[in-house]
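Reviewers of the previous submission asked for a worked example of the structure-prediction workflow described in the proposal, so we include one complete record here. The input consisted solely of the amino acid sequence. No template or homolog information was supplied to the procedure at any stage.
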Amino acid sequence: MVGRTDAPLVGHPYQVRRRTSPPPAAVDGRLSYSVAMAPRPIVTILFAAVLVLGGCAPAAAVSFDPTGPCTADGAAPGAYPDLEALVPTSYEGRGPDRLDSGRNCTAENLGTLAGLGISELRFAGGTWDFGGNRAAALVVFEAPGLTAEAMADFYEKSAVAANRTQVIGRASPSLAGRPGHRLDTMTGDRQQTVVVWPAAAKDRVDVVLSNDLPDPKIQAAVDAFGGQ
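From that input alone, the workflow returned the following structure tokens.
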């Protein structure tokens, strides 16, 4: 189970990185999962997360070279096809509205991961927009030495450093039969949830970010990974 927390915890905004802007919510029907750690646009919360994660806008994707030196953050559809192949192809009965991949190379977007010696974080994610700011991003992160604990800490520290958002809950549920982490936040009347757990392969972590979605749909997103 995704493990919703029983008691709320007061905190700060959640954004995948040390930003003062609100967490990703739905933006142009996209979710963002790579802010501070977010790759590129995906849902304002998720979208913003993605935009933040990759730290790039659509125009930036045009010049992004996934094969060159890791000196700048970037993301684009098809950048890392092997990672994109690990993103669930179906959730809620359909494929993602957007699928892309990229990497974070700057200390700003690597956040707390940089302090762990991670200098390049690759990711691939699909985003599903359900209208009315409801959205989900299903993401795979990969880097030598990457752990679910490190990713969870990255998201939490980014949230605590943000404004206008409250951390209302933390939990350590079992996800796909492995020890996971859950963070719930509120920005105005919108609730964002991030669940993180280790993938079956070493150095890889699976993440689900959601905006205004109930627990059954969050659990369905976790199940969509099929235990990989």
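Strands lie at 74-76, 98-104, 121-131, 134-142, 166-171, 174-175, 178-179, 181-187, 190-198, 204-211. We consider this example representative of the routine output the project will generate in years two and three.
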